What we know:
Elements: E1 3-10, H1 14-25, E2 30-33, H2 41-45, E3 52-55, E4 63-64, H3 71-77, H4 80-89, E5 94-96, E6 101-104, H5 110-121, E7 126-129, E8 134-139, E9 144-148, E10 151-160, H6 175-182, E11 187-193, E12 197-198, H7 201-208, E13 214-220, E14 226-233, E15 237-239, H8 241-247, E16 256-259, H9 266-276, H10 282-286, H11 292-300, H12 314-325, E17 327-329, E18 333-334, E19 342-347, E20 365-367, E21 375-376, H13 381-394
Parallel strand pairs: 1-2, 1-10, 2-7, 10-20
Antiparallel strand pairs: 3-6, 4-21, 5-6, 8-9, 9-10, 11-19, 12-15, 12-18, 13-14, 13-16, 14-15, 16-17
Helix pairs in contact: 1-5, 1-13, 3-13
Flavin-adenine dinucleotide binds at residues 10-16, 33-36, 41-42, 45-47, 51-52, 134, 161-163, 166-167, 171-173, 175, 341-342, 369-371, 380-383, 386.
Amino acid sequence: MAEKFDVVIIGAGAAGLMCAAQxxxxxxxxxxxxxxxxxxxxILIAGGGRCNFxxxxxxxxxxxxxxxxxxxxxxxxxxxxxxxSLVSQHGIEFxxxxxGQLFCVGDYTSKDIVKMLLTECxxxxxxxxxxxxxxxxxxxxxxxxxxxxxxxxxCQSLVVATGGLSMPKLxxxxxxxxxxxxxxxxxxxxxxxxxxxxxxxxxxxALAELSGIAVPTEITAQDGTVFKEALLFTHxxxxxxxxxxxxxxxRAGQKVSINLVPDVDLDELLQRSLExxxxxxLKNTLSKVLPKRLVEVLIELKLLEDxxxxxxxxxxxxxxxxxLQQWQITPNGTEGYRTAEVTLGGVDTDHLSxxxxxxxxxxxxxxxxxVVDVTGWLGGYNFQWCWSSAYAAGQWV
Length: 397
Ligand SMILES: Cc1cc2nc3c(=O)[nH]c(=O)nc-3n(C[C@H](O)[C@H](O)[C@H](O)COP(=O)(O)OP(=O)(O)OC[C@H]3O[C@@H](n4cnc5c(N)ncnc54)[C@H](O)[C@@H]3O)c2cc1C
């Protein structure tokens, strides 16, 4: 005999839990199914265990999606302020870090965000089952029939909240995309986003010794997108917030342009130094505003020529400024899904109602969270998309 539910949600991550709480509050008999042992594994590791759960400043501009307007409806139905208010109601303390990013603080960690979502789901209408292998889904006249482990489950609404492909170790699978394909929906090709760059051999060898050094930068992708944040040299390549951000806008083979001195008037520094200390070397001059090892490596890479300042003519001095403000580097690739925070691409939003996240062609089928072709910037935007899309769907399922 089939068990009957109003709503089945596949995936007990940020989006799935939020949606279950909303559906449950509307009195809908809701079941969450997940193949993992526990809910919210990505939330637990997010933000170094402090979960950057949203941002003070959220708009459609903070998202990548083939339809740049798609996110607007959900983001306005459930805003960052709604989630901040929920966090506050649960007594979770938080702090603002750079760029309006909100993190748990003090005694409060990512665990409290998961606990909060589970408390919200603690309703007589909501059940949860873990270690579930959903191996078959069929469309029926009134909804869907699912086969999970040894049970047969019928529901009116099916919500796919299985997330993206990043961090397979944490249980990420392409299941959501397969469900989309099963129902004839297109999936925008996926790739790793918010991910460190790897470098070509020569750059990697030269830069590896800078591992651990962070510098403020302004980094520009070939499409003109710019982020001003720290860059971190690692033993594998380049990381840090500026690189993670720009990685979502980078395509294989493209260059990125890095301003290594975004807060320095370099022309002025070089001119002043030339007047006051004409015998000072370029290396020592630049080491006042950049880590000395970085300057040495740029010299080794022949991007700069170390000479006393008085031996550099005005054209050569201008070239130094250009070199440091527009350091061109072509990444070899990215570290891929193994370390990526998100997946670019996903279920094509053309198939979905932006108001309810319901599939236009298949009534009762919903996609929410990261499985959809919506990717946020670094800074709490990905969770905000989960909360907003889940809330929107939760009003209709
Ligand atoms: C290291 C790291 C740090 C991050 N930090 C932040 C941050 O601080 N702020 C931020 O906004 N974003 C952050 N992100 C991104 C954010 O975690 C994700 O965008 C978000 O978790 C996506 O939520 P989701 O509910 O859509 O999917 P997920 O959280 O991935 O949940 C999907 C669920 O579906 C289940 N599932 C998958 N396949 C199946 C299947 N076949 N059968 C049954 N169940 C299945 C999974 O077990 C999982 O529980 C981070 C990501 C990573 C990897």
